[in-house]
From TrEMBL, chains A, B:
A GO molecular-function descriptor: lyase activity
Keyword Chloroplast: no
InterPro entries, per the entry: Aminotrans_IV, Aminotransferase-like, BCAT-like_C, BCAT-like_N, Class-IV_PLP-Dep_Aminotrnsfr
Pfam families: Aminotran_4 (PF01063)
UniProt keyword list: Lyase
Descriptive protein name: Aminodeoxychorismate lyase
Domain of life: Bacteria
Amino acid sequence: MAPTVVRIDHNSPTGTLLDASAPLIRIDDEGYTRGDGVFETMLAVDSQVRKFDLHLTRLANSARLLKISDPDDAAWRQATALALESAGPGTRTGLGVEHTVKLLISRGTPDEGPYGLVIVSGVPDSTIEQRENGVRAMLLPRGHDPAEDTSYPWLLAGAKTLSYAVNMAVLRHVKSLGAQEAIFTASDRRILEGATSSVVVARRDQGRLTLFTPEPNHGILPGTTQGALFEGARDSGWDVGFGPLYPKDLMESDGVWLTSSVRLLAPVTHLNNQALATSPDVTETLMGFLRSR
Amino acid sequence: MAPTVVRIDHNSPTGTLLDASAPLIRIDDEGYTRGDGVFETMLAVDSQVRKFDLHLTRLANSARLLKISDPDDAAWRQATALALESAGPGTRTGLGVEHTVKLLISRGTPDEGPYGLVIVSGVPDSTIEQRENGVRAMLLPRGHDPAEDTSYPWLLAGAKTLSYAVNMAVLRHVKSLGAQEAIFTASDRRILEGATSSVVVARRDQGRLTLFTPEPNHGILPGTTQGALFEGARDSGWDVGFGPLYPKDLMESDGVWLTSSVRLLAPVTHLNNQALATSPDVTETLMGFLRSR
């Protein structure tokens, strides 16, 4: 089933519904020819987008790094409402009826310039399954330390761009090894992030669980779901902390999860084919922290 | 004027002409949503593609790194002939009538899978002008050393992918400084390559000019034009050599050029706003080395 697409541009500043059963993108669109654009992927439950503010803030930051004009928040909200109204039936889960909502800005064609799109579709079954059954993850060297790039704005560290070929190659690589996600490590073996997720670790100390995640702002994309999870945990009186984390910390933890906006929270059942501690109760508690966010 | 586009897929293995005045790309094309594809840009003079073999070899290598199926060489040649036959008038220069010919492979949509495109258009005036009047270039740190990535195939070092947002950001950055190209340096200040070109330096020793370029195979994309230039130079009895080169070597050289397939050869007139030695005679000689290639 074709997704539902609403386009925002200077002719339709609050969005026009397009027919996505036909091709929509021109051959000289620089989003296509150069991966020159930015995006956010969000989850809507019963037509309510979760963490809309956080995603709009991160999208605006990505757009700023690429020096590409960004529709204002009101336009995105109006266009998203139109897309969700017009969307297909979505995916029914325990949370409600779910849709993925992708916001995308492309630099467009040299003639017409930049535009925004809201793209709404169902949530893939494989994503729902990862929430329930967890994922197998592999540690994978990230090559250079992304922190080395953060001083140079033209390297776009921290921008979520359409230039995602490496992330896709990484997922293909780990799939060929029987896993579903990669967890990147720096050259000193420090844990960075998943190819499409943030890494969260629970550690029990004197009976109390504390959540940890690698230090942000070192070339790691700040995870909106990890942020919401930590906020929820803090509100419930849990302690949270920030890395550095090493493979040993994951192996010896009381639970590892990958967080991302649509998948929400997926327990890591195996790391490099080694079984990790998992606890359905703790996963349920963490899902509760996310529920209202 | 819309470019001329020929598509190769399993329904039309030697290519079908498309109408590029309408949108051609679907919204869920992973070339668009993920920059998940590869490309080559070539120059045709009087409908003859230069260095076609070298480009097809590099395209096949990029496709192999991305694990994406690649039309065979005969299909590319047939589709390119069809596109050039159907193309607009092109750009008339001293070399003849010029067209740019882009070969592109996208992973396509989940439903339809990968396809190839041949996209033919005229050569931009700004490109022709760079051949004649040269370019101003800025040295720009590449952040990490690309050599660090070459051991990990999933990082796609050496693949020319549609994920080109960083290269575009680099060009915007140097344009904001009044220059047209960036020359990347490693953290030890070693010269790497231009954002969209290879770097060639001439040095005179006892009256004889020798050409140098940074050592290949350290995360630098091997330049087909630099390769052809060195072959032509060697055939004419010149010596050629390989880096490491440092900024001082460029500043104190007897000429620096940026080579790329459509621009061919552009003398660098200024590096970081400092005038470099230029010699129209040597540029003319080097163009001669390229002429038959």
